[in-house]
Design goal:
By secondary structure, the protein is an alpha+beta fold. The protein contains 16 helices and 19 strands. The chain is globular. About 50% of the residues are buried.
C-alpha cells in the first residue's frame, strides 16, 4: 500500500468518524501534558475494538507507517507524543472503554485499555472491592497507558506498581496478530511470563488492548496523619516504626520538604498551614483496613505518640473532609510549582536507606551549580521514589533555565546511579530519557532491550524512538 492511501483505507475500515485529520481536532493529541513535546501526525485513528486495533496495525504495516499508541495522553516523558515529521499515525485507545467483567469472588476485573482509571476504581467499588492504583490524573488517564508505563502512584507501598496489579493482558502485536493472554491466574509456570514484556514497555513491543486486574477487599476504615520532622533520616525511622506498629495497614507514605509545602500554601486551593510551627520536612501517611471493627485513628494516634524524638508534631484525621484537607497539600504541589516559574524535573528512585544521602548530595550539587536554584523534593518515599524537582531562581529567564535541563539531569542522575537507583522511577522513559538509558545502563542490558525490541517489532513500527536507545 502506498502511504498516501493509508488514511482512506483506515476510514473505510474503521468508519470516517474514527479517523481525525482536521488540524483543530488533532491538536489535543499532539502535545504531551507538560508541553515538552509537540509533534505532528498523518492522522489520529480511534478504533473501537481489539479487532479494529489489529486491522489498523496491519494496514499501517502494509503502508510502512509507524504507530504511536496513546491512552489519556497524561504522560510526562513524551511517550505518547508523535515525532515532528508528520508521517506517523496516533492510535488512540479512548474508544476501547468497556469493563468486560467483574468477578468479586475471584477478586478480578477485566477492563479495556481505554477505560479511565477512575471508572475502573468505581466499577470495583460497585462490587464492594478496591482497585488501588491511584494518582492525581486518575480522572483523565486510561488504564492502557497506566500499564504501558507501569504507573506507580500513592499506594505502591502496600499494593505495588501497576505490574503487580495485573494477572493477564490482551495485546496486538506489531504484525497485527492478537495475543489473548487474559488469564485470571495467580499461578502459571507454563513458560515465560509474557505479560511482563508489555507492561512498562510504553507501546514499543505491542499495544495492550485489555487486562485482567487484581482487586482487593474494600477498605472500611481510614486514617490520615501529617507529621512534622527534622529531616529525611527521621523519616525512615518513622516509616520503620509505623510499619511495625500497623502491619500492612500502612498504604501511603509521602515526603514533602518545606519549600514545596510553601508553594502549595501560596498557590493551592484550600491549603492551610498545618502546624503552629514550621518544620523542615513533612510526611503525609494513610492507614486503611477492611476489617469492620478496627480503630485506625486510635491505632495511629498511639503509634505516633510512641514516636517521641522522631515525630516533632502531628495531626491525625479520621473524617473524610479532614483527610482531604491534609491531602490537599500534597496534591497541590505539582500545580503550585508552575506558578513559581520553570521547572526541571527528576523522577528518581533509590534504595530506602540511601534516601537521606541522595537528598543531601543532590541538593548540594545543584545549589553549587546554580546559586539560587530552588530544589523541591517530594514523593512516595515509602517505595524509594522521589520527585526531585528544581524551580528556577527568582528573576532568571525561564528559557535560559530550561536550556540547562540536560546538564542538571546528568548531575542528578549520576548521583542516583552511584547509589544503585533509577533515573526513571514511575513516569517512564518515553522520548525524554533514551539518551540516559544509553549512558547509564550496562551494555549487556541495552543489548537485551534491543534484542527484545527487534524480535517483537523487527520493522520498528511501534512507537519508534521511545525507551530503547539507538544502536546496532
Amino acid at each position: 500500500m502506498e502511504p498516501d492511501a493509508l488514511v482512506p483505507a483506515l476510514a473505510q475500515r474503521l468508519g470516517p468518524e474514527a479517523v481525525i485529520t482536521d488540524e483543530a481536532r488533532l491538536a489535543p493529541y499532539l502535545e504531551e501534558r507538560r508541553g515538552l513535546f509537540h509533534g505532528r501526525c498523518r492522522a489520529v485513528i480511534r478504533p473501537a475494538s481489539t479487532e479494529e486495533v489489529a486491522e489498523s496495525v496491519r494496514l499501517c504495516a502494509a503502508a510502512g507507517i509507524s504507530i504511536v499508541p496513546q491512552g489519556g495522553n497524561t504522560g510526562h516523558c513524551g511517550g505518547a507524543a508523535p515525532d515532528a515529521g508528520g508521517g506517523q499515525v496516533i492510535l488512540s485507545l479512548e474508544r476501547l472503554d468497556r469493563i468486560r467483567a467483574v468477578d468479586p469472588v475471584g477478586h478480578t476485573l477485566v477492563a479495556e485499555a481505554g477505560c479511565i482509571l477512575a471508572d475502573v476504581q468505581r466499577a470495583a467499588a460497585e462490587s464492594d472491592r478496591l482497585f488501588p492504583l491511584s494518582y492525581a490524573a486518575e480522572g483523565q488517564c486510561r488504564i492502557g497507558g497506566n500499564l504501558a508505563t507501569n504507573a506507580g502512584g500513592m499506594n505502591v507501598l502496600r499494593y505495588g506498581n501497576a505490574r503487580d496489579l495485573v494477572l493477564g493482558v490482551e495485546v496486538v502485536l506489531a504484525d497485527g496478530r492478537i495475543w489473548d493472554g487474559l488469564r485470571a491466574l495467580r499461578k502459571d509456570n507454563s513458560g515465560y511470563d509474557l505479560k511482563d514484556l508489555f507492561i512498562g514497555a510504553e507501546g514499543t513491543l505491542g499495544i495492550i488492548t485489555a487486562a485482567v486486574l487484581r482487586l482487593f477487599p474494600r477498605p472500611r476504615h481510614h486514617a490520615t496523619a501529617l507529621v512534622g520532622l527534622d529531616g529525611p533520616e527521621t523519616t525512615l525511622e518513622l516509616l520503620a516504626l509505623l510499619r511495625a506498629e500497623t502491619g500492612d495497614a500502612l498504604s501511603a507514605f509521602e515526603i514533602m520538604a518545606r519549600r514545596p509545602v510553601e508553594f502549595a500554601l501560596r498557590h493551592g486551593a484550600g491549603c492551610v498551614e498545618p502546624f503552629e510551627q514550621q518544620w523542615p520536612w513533612y510526611v503525609l501517611l494513610d492507614v486503611t483496613s477492611s476489617r469492620r471493627r478496627d480503630d485506625l485513628p486510635g491505632l495511629l494516634e498511639a503509634a505516633l505518640a510512641r514516636s517521641a524524638g522522631i515525630a516533632r508534631d502531628y495531626r491525625v484525621a479520621a473524617e473524610a473532609t479532614d483527610r482531604e484537607r491534609l491531602w490537599a497539600l500534597r496534591n497541590a504541589i505539582p500545580g503550585a510549582q508552575k506558578h513559581e516559574g520553570a521547572s526541571i524535573k527528576h523522577d528518581i528512585s533509590v534504595p530506602l536507606p540511601a534516601i537521606p544521602e541522595f537528598l543531601a548530595r543532590a541538593t548540594a550539587a545543584v545549589e553549587r551549580r546554580l546559586p539560587g536554584v530552588r530544589p523541591c523534593p517530594f514523593g512516595h518515599v515509602g517505595d524509594g521514589n522521589i520527585h526531585f524537582n528544581l524551580s528556577q531562581p527568582p528573576g532568571m529567564d525561564a528559557d535560559e533555565f530550561l536550556g540547562r535541563w540536560d546538564e542538571f539531569n546528568r548531575l542528578v542522575h549520576d548521583i542516583v546511579a552511584e547509589l544503585d537507583g533509577s533515573f526513571a522511577a514511575e513516569h517512564g522513559v518515553g522520548q525524554l530519557k533514551p539518551a540516559e538509558v544509553a549512558r547509564l545502563k550496562s551494555p549487556v542490558e541495552q543489548d537485551l532491550m534491543r534484542w527484545i525490541k527487534r524480535a517483537l517489532d523487527p520493522e520498528d513500527r511501534l512507537n519508534p524512538g521511545k525507551v530503547v536507545p539507538p544502536g546496532d
